[in-house]
């Protein structure tokens, strides 16, 4: 078992990483009080709820559960209120513990419930997707979507422990595993070229579900995220690097409606837009851009976004919460392995990137290997760019 | 102008207290960014919104406002969502500032919106009721009610500044001023008998609206609250003393429906129940109990709760968030000026107090000077107790 200690907000918590984790060792000691609410969804609960429920009951806890529908489109106030109702109906008090058992959506909602139920109760995460293990395990971001924007309502809430069981990834659909790999690749791109080389060496084994390699990828990813977040807990500076691909990705998710594109798929296409813009600025080479496209494609990820008119995309970016005082900020690359926060991007370069990158079919599965849309081709260079 | 510096969560913020406060000096320097959302209600906005709106615009800020209905019954998710909608529709970003202009309900909702909009934006409070000035100015408690319980959803959020203008109290209905005095009296009862003597000297001037005396009462109250909260920011110990009268008060508010009894009125009646229980435990004398009843009555406050069956009251206490692990905790008095946290109260004493104290008419205006309900009279002593 790998244990990664994360120190944030003056508190420290462990991320346990192994093929299978023992609840008696890794879960029960981190429960506050006697009352435990397991929050899960209709997909994950039939597979893994009983394991934790029984262990907690054997450990003398009063256990209740709240099972929500599955999917980003349910990351709403209504689902959040279902958790509140379950807590209040069960008579849970301020000393209870909320355990999130599921992917990022469940983690975000259960975490936000823990941040706000009676002004804050204890929280433990059992992420069951690769994306949740490498992303929401660290950093304390929780929240829900609002009809006018994604993740617009939320809070920072640190868990008491995170249990990342590789075993749970065995039931994950391949498309979801790929979506998680998008975030793993992101860490390599923004701060660790050696990790990118490692990923290039092992990508087929990783996307094939090798649990030893996945555990290493999770540990390295979480360590990167912890280092960044520790330096900037409330996302006022360096932490923004974690949003590589996310500003563009949010445009895709919002335009297509939450859930059509998986978050990681949108991030992958968004990462390619960021790489494209970086290349147009002269910050990375065309070969670098191709290298990034190659690793994403080997992970089974799209490298083009769906067709979205440039004006629509710009409008959608105006509501992105990463916009500071009305000024568009982008996370771009100055070389592979070095993310930067950039603003004052020339409008025309941005428009060219949007035209080039948001030009694929509507379905992410088809955006991995399509030839580059001729309408978006650079008329001066004739570049066919990364969609080759 | 009195300025009280409050240091919480490693941050420090000023409470400005004066008859009239200059927004250029006390408000604008505390605004983060350029975007300011003024949150107020239909009662307060026509009186004071223009003053702050114009000053902010003159100060170069982009100002929007969100006017909610007035009253505790609107402290709901729907009102909160109205604030979120206003923020998103105006395109407000993470560097915006939310200003609460109103009583405790507006402060709680605007503060919770500030705690959760984009995971937290800047917050300034302009409390326009005495209760909000002496209570919600300090401590950072924010939140909304849930159909299953009061203040069940919330967060801790410290403001950047608090502006307490005595001038705003001139338009407050006398009943609301009295409700604020209930909280002022509370500080005296739990930790400062000398302050009680001062209140006994000046009560008629205070309830008559003398702004110099009110400013002193606000400053002394806020200083007491700041001292307690600084020692226990997340309400795990000593801070619970601030809930004197509140556990019983919540029973009254919940049973009667939010808004029938003002919060301060319910707290006043609840304080008398706490005093009654303290006297039954032998911790204060009958004369002490009478002294407390006298000051509350002089402040125009009820000293009896409405008639509520004991079993109903006990059931309602079971959902109170101050219940720790299923055990009822009470804030009682061991002498006037010394609050204590008590548990293991004998059931029979509690029932006697509930029978005696929850026996008045349904309307708080009638609960100040009614003769004590004979059904609740102690058959052994014939005590007519505090309702005389």
Descriptive account of the structure:
Two copies of one chain form a homodimer. In chain A, 43% of the residues lie in helices and 19% in strands. Chain A is built from 13 helices and 13 strands. In chain A, the strands form four sheets. In chain A, strands 1-2-9-6-5-3-4 form a seven-stranded mixed β-sheet, sandwiched between helices. Chain A has two domains: 2-171, Rossmann fold (3-Layer(aba) Sandwich); 174-367, Up-down Bundle (Dehydroquinate synthase-like, alpha domain). The radius of gyration of chain A is 20 Å and the shape is globular. Chain A has 388 residues and is an alpha/beta fold. In chain A, strand 5 (97-102), helix 4 (104-116) and strand 6 (122-127) form a beta-alpha-beta unit. The A-B interface holds A 33-34, 77, 81, 84-85, 88-89, 91, 93-95, 115-120, 141-143, 146, 148-149, 151-156, 234-235, 318-319, 321, 323-326 and B 33-34, 77, 81, 84-85, 88-89, 91, 93-95, 115-120, 141-143, 146, 148-149, 151-156, 234-235, 318-319, 321, 323-326.
Largest sheet of chain A: 7 strands, mixed
Give helix and strand order of chain A, one letter per element, not per position: EEHEHEHEHEHEEEHHHHHHEHEEHE
Q: CATH topology of the largest domain in chain A, what is it called?
A: Dehydroquinate synthase-like, alpha domain
Molecular shape of chain A: globular
For the record, the CATH class of the largest domain in chain A is: Mainly Alpha
Please tell me how large the radius of gyration of chain A is.
Answer: 20 Å
Low-pLDDT regions of chain A: 370-388
Mean pLDDT of chain A: 90
Oligomer: homodimer
The total count of helices of chain A amounts to 13
Side by side, the strands of the main sheet of chain A go 1-2-9-6-5-3-4
In the residues of chain A, how many domains can be counted?
2
Structural class of chain A: alpha/beta
